[in-house]
Design a protein that fits this description.
The complex is a heterotrimer of chains A (about 210), B (about 400) and C (about 170). Chain B is about 45% helix and about 10% strand. Chain B contains 17 helices and eight strands. Chain B is globular, with a radius of gyration of 23 Å. Chain B has a three-stranded antiparallel beta sheet. Chain C has a five-stranded mixed beta sheet, with helices on one face. Chain C has a two-stranded parallel ribbon with strand order 6-7. The chains are: A alpha/beta (about 210), B alpha+beta (about 400), C alpha/beta (about 170).
Chain lengths: ~210, ~400, ~170
């Protein structure tokens, strides 16, 4: 495109609007965030039933790759999103923590399904289930459902992308701390009598009163 | 094929010479893409050859049997969904088959046929995934995509049937939650029409594929005696020449009326297990076709006199028996009568014999709900299957055993 | 003339001849026989020779709160015959303290993990087991969770542990 005298005579700012054809003007922060949110690499971290739905979300019908998150990495060192898909048990908790610590920053965690959100069907009687993966690693997005449909997981992924878009490159208040080494443990291994009997406190409608 | 015939003598006179410091220990899992689920192997390697393997499990132990003592027979079906999560319908059928054995309930003919159809569809989807995983792990990615696409079709059928993709919770004591609608039957018919072509395509892709055959033939050998001695069941045992199939041997549901063959092989290696699964899908399709064409009319749940299945809305509003039955079943301290007895009932699940040992104590909860999982016994076989093979065969053997961690650990 | 396998009753009669009178019962077509704990191994070995060559399952029931229960633990051996498809349930009872039963791993290799699981979840000790370790629970765990007196409330609950947020990491 040649610049004619007539064009030049029109008063134009010297930089704004000059590059609209092929260039986008933005801030470094936005550019980095845009690049980051469009290339989330999840780790293959299937633990239980939710893994099947995670696989379905990655497979041809739902195709997570449309949103830039299709490159499932087998190693935590190449991944930046951990989709905890399935029940986390006490035996597995230390492994989950270790895999999280192996991932490079910035890293994100999706708690997929009811078990990782808060114990799910195992909340009351599952003696070997950690009641929520947020006791083990910090969680960014919780996806409800047992198991969530692939669409729900995609929605959770988009919330992660929103979160990435809002990030600042300037140093944040608080800084990077360290996760405590304490891990959740199962119930006491002996019999523990409840401190107060629930029968005295709650009126039991179905109990035959003497 | 030198892989199968290569022997590694750990007991001979030079065993002392190859001392422990030669060997290399490799930790495999519990988080590894080829285990598919959370199980752990500690492999002892001599170069690339596996000298010994120590399988470890329990990373997904969620206490299903404890939960079974606290949920009622109808509620616990939701937990069985999460047991073998690649064929949940088969688990639902197994659980309520066991409950109905304990309670002595005779199902209606329509319900029997419906359960047969869904159990066979579950078998197809299970075998698709397990064969697909063997293909995936040995390098055949296209095969896996074919299999997964057909699984989605079966998911669609189940979703139309009961509203959930794969945690169906479909069966109830004395019946099922939803009757077949014409749309469901139409979808199953469409599946029956299209699936054989895909299955042929899959066979053409993999069955005589040189790479796949070389990777699986002669790998993970299991003899018939070993299979019986180790209590193996299902396709793993049938690939070793054990002709035991509960559908034929102890006909439950509608299997006595239907015409099908038990698929067996004698080689006992990974390739034989793959072939048995492929052939079983064809037999399952035959079963689904027959059962669907002969689907009896009539009620799907047992009659309200038996006081186990929920009455329909029509019955609740128009008859006193229906109202009373509904009330009795809804109240928390009522429910149906359970004997102080114990019984075991099993079905031929896709993975093998899946049975439940239920102890009744008069209440609507089981006193003990033991699940007999096929995966545990198959996983225990792993060290003897892999000894002497190479590290790359580990994934082929694991895939062909089709170990599902949630069923393994419960 | 077709081969007629010995009926389960005949096998049980033979078992009673060998080991004394045994308590048998039938429920929904399933035959159960109670065998004393001290001869359980011999009885199972005898049954294996008589054609019950498949060990389907080994499990246990804790009868702590069960009505009319005389013993605390009841082991269940589900046997089947691959030739005749007959089934037989063998019950062996054990009691606190230190419930002990002889292992059947020498008879069936498949019993290995099943017995480890029973040891793990119920604390039944199997003498003669080659490798009696915990199967599903962590090694350092020291209780047996499927016993009826295992507490389902306690320090394992969610509110006893801090929720880890982004500020920590």
């Amino acid at each position: 495109m040649t610049v004619t005298a007539a064009d030049a005579s029109v008063a134009k700012p010297w930089i704004e609007g000059r590059f609209e054809e092929n260039l986008v003007l933005t801030t470094v922060e936005q550019a980095i965030n845009w690049a980051r949110q469009s290339s989330i690499w999840p780790m293959t971290f299937g633990l239980a039933c939710c893994a099947i739905e995670m696989m379905a979300a990655g497979a041809s019908r739902y195709d997570m790759d449309r949103f830039g998150a299709g490159a499932f990495r087998a190693t935590p060192r190449q991944a930046d999103l951990m989709i905890v898909a399935g029940t986390v048990t006490y035996k597995m908790a230390s492994r989950v923590r270790r895999l999280y610590n192996l991932m490079p920053d910035p890293k994100y965690v999706i708690a997929m399904g009811a078990c990782t959100t808060g114990g799910g069907p195992y909340f009351k009687w599952g003696y070997h289930v950690v009641k929520g993966v947020d006791l083990v690693v910090p969680v960014d997005v919780y996806v409800p459902g047992c198991p969530p449909r692939p669409e729900s997981l995609l929605e959770g992924l988009m919330r992660i992308q929103d979160k990435i878009l809002g990030q600042r490159i300037a140093k944040q208040k608080g800084g990077v701390g360290k996760i405590d080494d304490e891990l959740p443990v199962p119930h006491h291994s002996g019999y523990v009598a409840p401190a107060v009997s629930a029968d005295d406190l709650v009126f039991n409608h179905q109990k035959v009163q003497p | 094929m030198s892989i199968a015939t290569a022997t590694f003598d750990t007991t001979g006179p030079e065993a002392g010479a190859r001392s422990e410091d030669y060997l290399w220990t490799l930790n495999f899992g519990p988080q590894h893409p080829a285990t598919h689920t959370t199980l752990r192997l500690v492999l002892k390697l001599d170069g690339e050859r596996v000298v010994d393997a120590m399988p470890e499990m329990g990373y997904l132990h969620s206490g299903f049997e404890k939960i079974g003592e606290h949920l009622t027979f109808n509620q616990y079906v939701t937990v069985t969904d999460r047991m073998n999560y690649i064929s949940p319908m088969a688990n639902n059928v197994a659980w309520h088959h066991a409950v109905e054995t304990l309670l002595g309930i005779e199902l209606t003919p329509r319900c029997v046929y419906i359960r047969t159809i869904i159990a066979e569809l579950a078998r197809i989807s299970d075998h698709l995934l397990s064969n697909g995983a063997v293909g995936l792990d040995t390098g055949a990615f296209t095969f896996f995509l074919y299999a997964f696409y057909q699984r989605e079709v079966i998911y669609d059928i189940f979703e139309t049937l009961c509203g959930a993709r794969f945690t169906n919770s479909y069966t109830r004591v004395g019946g099922v939650s939803q009757d077949f609608t014409p749309l469901v039957i139409e979808k199953i018919r469409a599946f029956i029409r299209t699936f054989p072509k895909t299955l042929d395509d899959m066979e053409r892709l993999l069955t005589r594929n040189r790479i796949f055959v070389d990777r699986t033939k002669g790998v993970g050998l299991l003899t018939k005696e070993e299979a019986i001695n180790a209590s193996a069941s299902g396709p793993v045992a049938r690939a070793s020449g054990v002709t035991r199939d509960l559908r034929k041997d102890e006909p439950y549901l509608a299997y006595a009326d239907l015409d099908f063959q038990v698929c067996c092989a004698s080689a006992g290696d990974c390739y034989a297990r793959y072939l048995v699964r492929m052939q079983e899908m064809r037999e399952s399709l035959k079963l689904v076709t027959q059962a669907l064409e002969n689907l009896p009319a009539g009620d799907v749940n047992v009659s309200i006199d038996q006081r186990v299945a929920r009455p329909t809305k029509q019955q609740v509003y128009s008859s006193i028996e229906g109202t009373i039955s509904h009330f009795e079943l809804s109240m928390a301290n009522r429910g149906f009568e359970v004997p102080h007895e114990e019984s075991y009932a099993a079905i031929e699940a896709p993975n093998g014999e899946l049975g439940f040992y239920i102890v009744g104590d008069g209440s609507e909860n089981a006193y003990r709900a033991r699940c007999r999982p096929p995966s545990v016994l198959h996983f225990a076989l792993f060290p003897q299957l892999i000894r002497g093979h190479t590290l790359s065969d580990v994934v082929a053997v694991l895939g062909s055993l089709n170990i599902i961690a949630a069923e393994l650990d419960r | 003339m077709p081969f007629t396998p010995p009926s389960v009753d005949d096998v049980l009669a033979g078992l009673a001849d060998r080991f004394g009178t045994l308590d048998t019962s039938v429920y929904r077509g399933q035959t159960r026989v109670v065998v004393p704990a001290d001869v359980s191994f011999d009885a199972l070995a005898w049954l294996k020779e008589r054609g019950f060559d498949l060990l389907v399952d080994v499990t246990c029931v804790d009868y702590l709160e069960y009505q009319d229960a005389k013993h605390r633990y009841g082991l269940v051996y589900l046997l089947a015959s691959t030739a005749t498809n007959q089934r037989l349930t063998v019950r062996v009872f054990a009691d606190d303290p230190d419930p002990t039963v002889r292992s059947v791993v020498p008879l069936w290799a498949g019993a290995n993990w099943l017995e480890r699981e029973v040891w793990d979840l119920f604390g039944i000790r199997f003498t003669g087991h080659p490798d009696l370790r915990r199967l599903v629970m962590p090694e350092e765990f020291n209780a047996h969770p499927l016993r009826k007196d295992y507490p389902l409330q306690g320090r394992g609950e969610r509110h006893n542990f801090p929720v880890i947020t982004r500020d920590h990491s």
